[in-house]
């Protein structure tokens, strides 16, 4: 907003400060609670856990094609070696224990292990994000629809949902799903295709006519933020925040 809004410097500064201070006021009670109770002025301990169990783990499985259990075992071994004295003997032994941990000190260890791995494997992180980006936009989420309609469905594992390429996933979808689920899937993917196509056409038309450029840039930045934050774990519910902006 500060960079692209067509206002005076003073007006933009005021607007940004109002937004920033409002956000601080909203989150400060919970941040203070965590600081007073755990000694950490943070909103949550889950960010570093997700960095390890999602970002680093899917970089290994999707980017390097390493078995997820093998990747988790590697991360556990690194935690044992890098753990400070107060955490010796307390490190988790598997993915379930990692996910269930809410300790801030342990989450710092997760971040250390994850960042160490990601810095050494930037290329594979990029590959995993590209695959996730495609999966995020193409994922039809038919299993959730089938369950809400009380219809039988063969549920795929998390590894299948996140590791399969688009063509392999499409072949598996037609081989394993019922006629009802295939029809629902075709309806959803047709709707998504219409949304994405009209989005591209709309962007090109506005760019050609040189209209609403600041609005277009704002929308692209918002979409880019949510895509970057969500593509490593491409579940359809992470696509929900960006769909209104594509449609707009």
User: What is the structural class?
Assistant: mainly alpha
Number of strands: 0
The helix tally amounts to 12
Note the main sheet: none
Helical content stands at over 70%
Proportion of beta-strand residues: under 5%
- The averaged pLDDT comes out at 88
Order of helices and strands: HHHHHHHHHHHH
Rg, nearest Å: 22 Å
| Net shape | globular
Low-pLDDT residue intervals, each spanning 5 or more residues: none
Report, as a whole number of angstroms, the end-to-end distance. 18 Å
List the keywords.
globular, 248 residues
Structural notes for this entry:
It is a single chain. The protein is mainly α. Helix content is 73%, strand content 0%. It has 12 helices and no strands. The chain has helices spanning 9-38, 46-63, 68-82, 95-100, 104-120, 122-138, 142-148, 158-163, 166-176, 179-209, 213-230, 243-247. The model has no long low-confidence stretch (mean pLDDT 88).
């Amino acid at each position: 907003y500060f960079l692209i809004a067509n206002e005076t410097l003073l007006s933009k500064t005021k607007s940004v400060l109002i937004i920033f201070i409002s956000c601080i006021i909203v989150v400060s009670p919970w941040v203070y609670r965590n600081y007073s109770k755990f000694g950490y002025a943070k909103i949550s301990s889950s960010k570093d856990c997700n960095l390890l169990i999602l970002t680093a783990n899917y970089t290994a499985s999707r980017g390097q094609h390493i078995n997820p259990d093998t990747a988790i075992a590697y991360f556990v071994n690194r935690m044992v070696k890098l753990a400070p004295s107060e955490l010796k003997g307390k490190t988790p032994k598997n993915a379930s224990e990692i996910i269930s941990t809410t300790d801030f000190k342990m989450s710092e260890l997760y971040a250390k292990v994850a960042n160490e791995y990601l810095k050494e494997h930037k290329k594979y992180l990029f590959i995993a994000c590209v695959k996730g980006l495609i999966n995020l936009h193409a994922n039809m989420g038919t299993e959730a629809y089938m369950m809400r309609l009380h219809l039988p469905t063969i549920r795929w594992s998390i590894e299948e949902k996140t590791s399969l390429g688009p063509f392999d996933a499409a072949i598996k979808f037609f081989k394993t799903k019922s006629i009802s689920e295939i029809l629902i899937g075709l309806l959803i993917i047709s709707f998504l295709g219409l949304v994405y196509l009209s989005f591209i056409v709309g962007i090109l038309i506005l760019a050609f006519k040189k209209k609403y450029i600041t609005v277009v840039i704002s929308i692209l930045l918002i979409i880019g933020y949510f895509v970057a934050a969500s593509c490593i774990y491409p579940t359809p519910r992470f696509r929900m925040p960006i769909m209104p902006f594509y449609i707009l």
